[in-house]
Known about the structure:
mainly alpha; transmembrane helix
Amino acid sequence: MSTVWIIALIAVVVVLLVAVLLVARRREGGGGHGLKRRFGPEYDRVVARHDGDTKAAERELEERVKRHGSIEPRPLPPEIREQYVARWAAVQEQFVDSPQRAVAEADRLLARLAADRGFPADGQYEEQVSALSVHHADTVQGYRRVHRAAHTDSGTEQMREAMLEARELFETLVTAKPADSGRHRPQSADDRRGRSHTPWSLGKGHHPKGSGA
């Protein structure tokens, strides 16, 4: 074999090795470590649901990204946003007299709000949660908790905690700006104005009527 052919063969081998290394790095960046960064606490919840099987959990999360990663959440028109803010404030007030009805209404309100933001339609709870987990992994658990509280026989304290956690997702979705894929961001003046219209008076020192507290 001539020297030229030997050099050419070595060059091909080197190129192949570089390609393999690049693919491996790309998979690592977009695989487990990338999914952990993207999903945060949601990653741990899915792993736990798969009894610690990280491969199965990552396959599920990758499938969610494939199905819902391209969603571009729509901003809400100002008048619609204000309507949602007013409805949520009314739900919070309703909780004092009727916690079960309040969490049921909060569940419905989040479903409608998610649909208006461009996520799967109202009535497709599982698909909504799946899509929201891709874009709002830090707060999607609040939707799960309030949905569970609305459809099970939960205690008053459980419902109160569910409402508090659901409010975090509500405040994220109701912002006039597009969603930010679950990443933390500085609170804007627009957010502060929206939150000032949604007072939350269900601290532990306040109890619904008839709760026996």
